[in-house]
Write a structure and sequence with these properties.
Layout: E1 8-12, H1 19-30, E2 34-36, H2 37-45, H3 49-56, H4 58-74, E3 80-82, H5 91-96, E4 102-108, H6 111-118, H7 131-149, E5 152-155, H8 161-169
């Protein structure tokens, strides 16, 4: 296991699993900057994730997702990175997440928990049609990719944010 003090800590997982919320808490406890990839994309483009999807489509968003991940990983100061849910879809991102100075924690939740958490999330364009079926398919497709990059897995079901943050830090 790589020493934590010399690495970037990247949180990966499905939308709604709590990467941003847990990331804020973990970054505060470690006294590190937090880079949230969705926030970075929105700051860079001046548009919401939904607006990017609507105007340019998913491939354009995925390209931006890769840019901000690589940018965050190249920073010399160790940080906490809350990566976008689909970051594992691109092979170049998975390769970047395997670098020696990166530690990846997969925040995992069952599809049932995810469906409940994102039920009223209007900012999630991939869930516009059939949120439950879409989330279940995404989980099936992405689960092996999250597993591939994860140095550790933290199950979030029935845990408070503080409990998840504690588990991440362990």
């Amino acid at each position: 296991m790589r020493p934590m003090e010399a690495t970037h800590l990247v949180l990966v997982g499905m939308m709604g699993v709590g990467k941003s919320t847990v990331g804020r808490m973990v970054a505060e406890r470690l006294q590190r900057p937090l880079f949230d990839s969705d926030e970075m994309i929105e700051a860079r483009t001046g548009r919401t994730v939904r607006a990017i999807f609507e105007a340019e489509g998913e491939p354009a968003f995925r390209a931006l997702e890769t840019e901000v991940l690589i940018e965050a990983l190249r920073r010399p100061e160790p940080s906490v990175i809350a990566a976008a849910g689909g970051v594992v879809m691109r092979p170049e991102n998975r390769e970047a997440l395997k670098a020696d100075d990166v530690r990846v924690v997969w925040l995992s939740a069952t599809p049932d928990v995810l469906v409940e958490r994102v039920r009223n999330g209007s900012h999630r364009p991939l869930l516009d049609q059939d949120p439950e079926a879409t989330l279940r398919k995404m989980y099936t497709d992405r689960e092996p990719l999250y597993r591939e990059v994860a140095d550790a897995i933290v199950h979030v079901d029935r845990r408070s944010i503080g409990e998840v943050a504690d588990a991440v830090l362990r």
